[in-house]
């Protein structure tokens, strides 16, 4: 069992504290981008939600690519408990480290939402009232996370240098081709419960989202284990 | 005669079942992106079709690049019977495998449309009533497919690593510079007959589209055979 | 004196007929993209010119990158008499070949405009009535072409592999930061005289545009000759 | 102490006059892009500020990437006194050269604003009346500059070839996820005081912006010194 759950091969051994700091900071910045650009988009778009979502998409796709470029060599740039779970199932990260990753992802994500609120002079503490429920939303999250894991596992194996761009481009597409705008990430889902803005989700809708995400992630992991067998010797 | 019809050199021999699965899954995800983002764009755009098409374009260009990155090394990432035909004429893929590719592309494409409908809580079974007829539409499809084949054959020969990005960027442009929004793909055309949404096409218009696509593909294949002769020995 | 006016090093000697065909076809496709996406943008945008220009920008930036990727190794992918002139002044292309390039660029550009008209069921023969006059427009063209030549000469010398993307990104920016939407190309200016659509320019405004373009090109060539001296031996 | 404050390793020793010219010209072109595309966006957007900012974002992200590609090998492409300060604190640029960089950045930035005004037939001399005040704006600038320095220091160390694209993508995101639209640059702040257009900022708001920028830059420099220790021997 290895502790190298990196999307990228690390340049050198990275200490545990730096790994966790990278994972927390990266997830915080991701949520600041998602929630902040959602607020800005909604404020400026004059009621046209497509324009607000285009802005939200541009910011998220661009920002996510940069965060994976910068933090990938340090922590693997998971920023996502579903991704960490898949690497744990593949035994590319130990269970203890995986649990620590998930914890700092959750804490970082919430900090990022609060930073976005502070930047936009919103109350820091909020709870979303935006229901996103029903089987179509859950299926959307399953598809969204399935595609994300397929993208990550395919790139890590076949084209590692393109991984940051591929993940950013994938989310750019997924904001639009899924009915749920593709959260695809339990830590993001949790954090967005705490923002009653464009990007928020009511806590009552969160369990369905997370269930869909985990189902999609597991399906993708199983498929890719068959499609790209790791034994090459 | 070779069976290596890849846009990218495969990392290792890929079994037939994995090739066909990659081709089917990739085409399914492509159609889910095209049709899903079309539905989302139209729902949010408040009646402004340019905004809906910008969203559709961003999602398709980004998603297609990612799909070619991930599936290119497995199946060549054709996702398109016109592309497969060109490689068959160039004797870079055998006739039997080419026929199998076209079949799974068609089946995958339809499955992708149905997945998009399920995500957006639309009836799964639909038939488009959107007529896209006339010589200008056919000529548009010929130009669109001509440019696609020129892009693919030029990149594969001259800059293989840029192929996924180039194809995504080409389609980004082609959604706008052709009057038909550049289907450029018989499997996509067939699948979009089964969606009565933004991206749909009435079955009555499909034969003209496919005829234009094949004419454009053959013209591009002939031109590129002269422009980039393959004999280098 | 060399005949290798390539933005990219050619993979192998390319015959004169193939060079000229590449230059003509590339310029034709560039104009089809510029004019076609302008028509589509204007038709769909519901009177909002910013939305139309965003669509026009996305298509042009994406399409131009692809065309340079594909045709760069064959002809250098100038598509622009101002670029050819600069390479001729730098003695990287002979005078005779430069004149032939300029001729096929002009012919190809006009063919591309006509192809766009045919795709959109517009009359093939048109003359623009859109005046774009005044010193601010001329200064805009000078700045636009200055920046284009700085981009090309900087990339060719310092980062050749990034040239196609850099030129596409430069034009993406220049459509918006210049008051003239950055034609930056005498062949494009001539061809756009023949389209009375979104991207057109009245013939009466063309000489001022071309004068600005040449002034900007020469200023950039002089600056870059100082900034990046070619003697390295 | 080294004078090599490059974002990129220079290809060969670059003379002081060329370095300063590159830094001045690059900053001038950056401001022409920022202010010019702001004017164009506002003029065409029909009152929808989100559409204007999308255009402003596309132009700035694309243009900034190109400018770093071209001028990075010459001067390091700082274009930003906060970036120069961080490299000076890291002793990667001498104090005298750093001061000269800051001076030509300021002069270049103002020249770029005036060039934009001339292109758009605006009065060259303007002073902005657009107040951007309050703690949320200052905090936004701190976050924006923090993220910019994290991006630059991470890329320079871990993925230098991706630096130009990463900085362009970061600013693309930051225009939207910060309430201040991410100036993140004291020279840009100064220059934008002299434009009473979409991108302007009232001189009374500038000190708060610069204070936020410096605080964010110093915090990022401290964090990255810990996260990516430079000693590898």
UniProtKB/TrEMBL annotation, chains A, B, C, D:
<keyword id="KW-0812">Transmembrane</keyword>
<feature type="transmembrane region" description="Helical">
    <location>
        <begin position="51"/>
        <end position="74"/>
    </location>
</feature>
<feature type="transmembrane region" description="Helical">
    <location>
        <begin position="95"/>
        <end position="117"/>
    </location>
</feature>
<dbReference type="Pfam" id="PF00230">
    <property type="entry name" value="MIP"/>
</dbReference>
<dbReference type="InterPro" id="IPR034294">
    <property type="entry name" value="Aquaporin_transptr"/>
</dbReference>
<keyword id="KW-0813">Transport</keyword>
<keyword id="KW-1133">Transmembrane helix</keyword>
<feature type="transmembrane region" description="Helical">
    <location>
        <begin position="137"/>
        <end position="156"/>
    </location>
</feature>
<feature type="transmembrane region" description="Helical">
    <location>
        <begin position="208"/>
        <end position="228"/>
    </location>
</feature>
<dbReference type="InterPro" id="IPR023271">
    <property type="entry name" value="Aquaporin-like"/>
</dbReference>
<feature type="transmembrane region" description="Helical">
    <location>
        <begin position="168"/>
        <end position="188"/>
    </location>
</feature>
<feature type="transmembrane region" description="Helical">
    <location>
        <begin position="20"/>
        <end position="39"/>
    </location>
</feature>
<keyword id="KW-0472">Membrane</keyword>
<protein>
    <submittedName>
        <fullName>Aquaporin</fullName>
    </submittedName>
</protein>
<dbReference type="InterPro" id="IPR000425">
    <property type="entry name" value="MIP"/>
</dbReference>
<comment type="similarity">
    <text>Belongs to the MIP/aquaporin (TC 1.A.8) family.</text>
</comment>
């Amino acid at each position: 069992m290895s502790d190298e759950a990196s999307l990228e091969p690390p340049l050198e051994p990275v200490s545990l504290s730096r790994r966790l700091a990278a994972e927390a900071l990266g997830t915080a910045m991701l949520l600041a981008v998602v929630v902040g650009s959602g607020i800005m988009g909604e404020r400026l778009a004059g009621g046209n939600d497509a324009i607000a979502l285009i802005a939200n998409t541009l910011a998220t796709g661009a920002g996510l690519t940069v965060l994976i470029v910068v933090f990938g060599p340090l922590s693997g740039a998971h920023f996502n408990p579903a991704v960490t779970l898949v690497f744990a199932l593949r035994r590319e990260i130990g269970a203890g480290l995986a649990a620590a990753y998930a914890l700092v992802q959750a804490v970082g994500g919430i900090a990022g939402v609060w930073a976005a609120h502070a930047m936009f002079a919103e109350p820091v503490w909020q709870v979303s009232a935006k229901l996103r429920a029903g089987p179509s939303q859950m299926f959307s999250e399953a598809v969204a996370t399935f595609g994300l894991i397929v993208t990550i596992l395919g790139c890590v194996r076949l084209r590692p240098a393109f991984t940051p761009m591929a993940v950013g481009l994938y989310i750019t597409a997924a904001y639009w081709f899924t009915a749920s705008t593709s959260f695809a990430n339990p830590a993001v889902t949790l954090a967005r419960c705490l923002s009653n803005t464009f990007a928020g989700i009511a806590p009552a809708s969160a369990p369905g989202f997370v269930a869909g995400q985990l189902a999609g992630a597991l399906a993708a992991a199983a498929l890719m284990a068959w499609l790209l067998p790791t034994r090459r010797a």
